[in-house]
Amino acid sequence: MLVAACGPSGEQLGSGDAPNAQHTSSPPRPAEPTAEPTSVTNATPQNGVAASPTAATGPKRSRVRLTLALDWTPNTNHTGIYVAQSKGWYEEEGVELRILPYAEGTSTDLIVATGRADVGVSFEESVVQTRAKNQDVVSIAAVIQKNTSALVVANRSGVSRPRELDGKRYAGFGAAFEQPMIERVIKCDGGEGKYRSITANLFGYQAVKSGQADFVWIYMGWEGVQAEREGLDLNAFYINQHCIPDYYTPVLIASGKGVEQNADALRRFLAATARGYKFGVEDPEEAARLLVQAAPKGTFPDPGLVTASQKWLAPKYSEGQERWGVQTLQKWTDYPRFMYGTGKVTDASGNPTADEPDYEAYFTNDLLPR
Q1: What are the boundaries of each domain within the chain?
Q2: What is the pLDDT of residues 252-261, one digit of tens each?
Q3: What is the 3-state composition of the chain as percent helix, strand, coil, each rounded to the nearest 5?
Q4: What pTM was estimated for this model as a whole?
Q5: Which residue of 21, 83, 104, 163 has the fewest CB atoms within a 10 Å radius of its CB?
């Protein structure tokens, strides 16, 4: 579920605290890392960033090889990466970037923490849960500045505010933070926070469209746009407007070791990536075209959806910030504190932990281009 950034909270892939979607921009959160991933067979462990002995692209600048792990199939959360690659901007920075294909059932955080990839696309809530298990991941850039996920109902339902979700059927995916989030949103509007969780055989807004569920949790930048294109009018209750602290989703992550030992390579990677997202803001139609062109064949059966999603997301990549990628301590404190307050953050042994960490260590802006 999680497009456009937007993204609800959750673990990763299939069991995450996020809206469920079939393709791009709205992927479900990956499952909590519990074991070393085995499904990424074509990824060469990098042990951080491996400098290549090949010729340098500039004075005293050696080329570096980096691998990037996707959180889902290519979508408009990833536009800046594919634009930068298509434009040759990584090459200009002396970076040879290899994008690892998404593998269902894997945790991007664990792939990065164990050195199977140098950089990954993840989510703030996943970083919190992974670090609680003593895994070494750090957020190095925010892809989108504000959470764009929402609880949605069909307009025809007559439900016009969150408190009217009491007693309604919700099609979810069993994420750890799903229930406390929904309860808070409903109670924030004066409701009791009581709803019925059901199992549907359709994902996301399709469950609402078919009548299998009354409401679902989706990313408006992808599934919201998709529903509109199909003529389904939705009433959306953005979670960050109803007593849920705003948070970053998605984010780019690296290992703490990589940040310390390979800062120059990561700076070069982010310099090119920032250019890619800036291009996506300034020319969303061309950025969408480059994304469709660069993605594996068959990724986007409806290229028009990619363009519409890109236009929707374009002003949100850097919204409220002068530079793309900047993160704040407030957003890395408020939502994680909510997570810890639910008692559902667990340690490496699977036991709930209430000891709040040093949130400032969860992210860095030091590698972003000035």
Answers
A1: 50-145+248-362
A2: 999 999 999 9
A3: 35, 15, 50
A4: 0.85
A5: 104
